[in-house]
Design the sequence.
């Protein structure tokens, strides 16, 4: 059995949970497609499904960076957790709109809360991505 640090295991768990969420969203998408006169799921159900699939694979990449990083495990886990939290928050928002069928564009009209969320999402995802990338570079190229 391959030994993995706890931070890597948690990051892989995030990927697995996001993948399972994507599979469930695929079922939601299918049901909406079957019940729709146009045979189409709501736009945000489709977005949620695709985003969850993409985020699950992004979280696999995050887990690899966590595993190969030079930083202390708690730093890697904090960065991976921050990314997973924002990925999940985005998918949850898309799922909510798809379930409620309340909008075709969550940015129309834009709200202050959504703008703040998006600004924090950008900062956290890029910041955590930079932390993990720097830890990977430090661990794999400088030592």
Sequence:
């Amino acid at each position: 059995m391959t030994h993995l640090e706890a931070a890597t295991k948690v990051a892989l768990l995030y990927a697995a949970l996001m993948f399972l969420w994507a599979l469930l969203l695929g079922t939601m998408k299918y049901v909406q497609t079957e019940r729709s006169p146009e045979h189409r799921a709501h736009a945000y159900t489709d977005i949620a499904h695709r985003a969850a699939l993409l985020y699950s694979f992004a979280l696999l990449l995050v887990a690899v960076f966590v595993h190969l990083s030079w930083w202390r495990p708690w730093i890697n886990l904090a960065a991976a957790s921050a990314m997973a939290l924002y990925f999940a928050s985005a998918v949850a928002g898309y799922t909510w709109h798809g379930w409620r069928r309340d909008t075709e564009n969550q940015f129309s009209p834009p709200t202050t809360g959504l703008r703040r969320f998006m600004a924090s999402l950008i900062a956290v995802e890029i910041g955590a991505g930079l932390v993990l990338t720097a830890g990977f570079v430090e661990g794999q190229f400088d030592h």
User: Anything to note?
Assistant: DSSP finds four helices and no strands in the chain.
